[in-house]
Specification:
globular; disordered C terminus; 19 helices; mainly alpha; about 425 residues
């Protein structure tokens, strides 16, 4: 991997990242104590999944996720997350006991450390472009919304390992990422494609097997020890209707008038087909325009296609894309547009939830149409981002050459 251009130091990147996280904590702090009786999560826009999940995941006692059955009479879902996310909650709950605020801060510390790990990996790869992550407004909003910074850290570390030609480690990190949130598994495809393009298929095979092996090592004990609980994540996601922030939800609402799509099986099939087709289309266009492009950068359009075609686009999923703007599309105007749209979706989403709850104060009262305009605008901007990636000709960071080989004066991306 070529030495990244470093116009600023890592210490400054960390300082700016800390400022972003402090700002984000200021947004979330009013909700951290769990006293939501006044509807503050919607009026003050401080909602976070961490606060309610201590109770809905039934972790205030000593219950072991998957291994101990959930109380089926309790409200909400239980064991609804992948293994490493559920056990991150479990460890935090051991530290917090029944204190909601302590549970929030125990998880927040883990997520803040993940954010610094992401920034360090990005700085090693692209130098000052790490600021696309460190200064992102959506990082401030979503850092402690859910646990997504953990798989983002694992996926970013896997990308760094891939560029350093540590393929087995790259696969292991992707497998662990998939055991936290399934999306890092999508990156196995472009990484293996890069090795095949570079005429090193064995390295790609090793990466894929390492990813599968790491995922199995983490998951198999729980699949055998508590199959019903372990399968809940897969059952829930196959049966859940279109989520609020998805194009599917907006389409169903506009065409049927209902808040949600009832034919989940049809949506599952259609979204999978659209995802595969859109990835193939972007790949073909990019290869036609730039035959030698770095195949691993397909991770960017793959993630965008997944978010736009999937029936679930949870608010914090925008975190998945932040490292890729520094890695594959350092386009400041498009990045700023995406950030503005993502913030608009957050504000209008939770303000509209306040409307549904008939709350007064804050921005409660925003109609659903404004929220849907923000969702549509974000989708259009992401399509423009993929188009810009297809047109982009500047070389991306490339894998380091094998030991003992000479590098050409002009590096050719693989």
């Amino acid at each position: 991997m070529p030495t990244a251009t470093r116009k600023i130091g890592l210490g400054l990147v960390f300082a700016l990242l800390a400022g972003t996280l402090v700002l984000g904590h200021g947004i979330k702090a009013p909700c951290a104590g769990g006293d939501w009786g006044d509807g503050r999560q919607y009026i003050r826009l401080c909602y976070t999944d961490i606060v309610p999940l201590l109770g809905t995941e039934q972790l205030a006692g000593g219950r072991l996720p998957y291994l101990d059955p959930c109380n089926q009479e309790a409200p909400g879902s239980c064991d609804e997350y992948p293994v490493l996310t559920m056990w991150t909650m479990r460890v935090a709950a051991w530290a917090s006991g029944t204190s909601i605020s302590t549970f929030f801060y125990a998880n927040a510390i883990i997520l803040w450390l993940a954010a610094f790990a992401i920034a360090a990996c990005l700085y090693a790869m692209v130098g000052s472009r790490a600021l696309y992550f460190a200064l992102a407004p959506t990082l401030a909003i979503y850092a402690t919304m859910n646990w997504d910074l953990i798989p983002v850290a694992l996926a970013t570390g896997a990308t760094l390992a891939y560029l350093q030609r540590k393929d087995v480690w790259s696969g292991v990190l992707l497998g662990l990422g998939a055991a936290t949130k399934l999306y890092p598994a999508l990156l196995v495809v472009p990484f293996v494609a890069g090795r095949i393009r570079g005429r090193e298929p064995d390295r790609g095979i090793h990466l894929a097997w390492a990813a599968a092996g790491a995922w199995l090592v983490v998951n198999v004990p729980f699949a055998l020890g508590g199959p019903a609980g372990w399968l809940e994540f897969f059952r829930l996601n196959s049966a859940r209707p279109a989520d609020w922030d998805s194009i599917w939800f907006m389409a169903c609402h506009r065409f049927t008038g209902d808040l949600g799509c009832t034919n989940t099986r049809l949506i599952n099939i259609a979204s999978a087909s659209l995802f595969v087709g859109s990835v193939w289309f972007a790949w073909r266009l990019k290869a036609r325009r730039d035959p030698g492009f770095a195949r691993w950068t397909l991770g960017f359009p793959i993630l965008v296609a997944f978010l736009l075609t999937n029936k679930v686009y949870s608010p914090q999923y925008g975190l998945w894309l932040l490292p890729w703007f520094g890695l594959a599309l350092p386009n400041l105007p498009l990045f700023a547009l995406f950030q503005a749209a993502d913030v608009a979706v957050f504000v209008t989403r939770f303000s509209w939830f306040g409307t549904l709850q008939e709350l007064d104060g804050g921005l409660a009262g925003i109609p659903i149409g404004v929220f849907e305009i923000a969702v549509l605008a974000r989708a259009v901007i992401l399509v423009l981002c993929v188009a810009a990636w297809i047109r982009r000709r500047e070389p991306a960071p490339e894998p380091a050459p094998p030991l003992g080989s000479a590098r050409d004066p002009i590096p050719v991306p693989r």
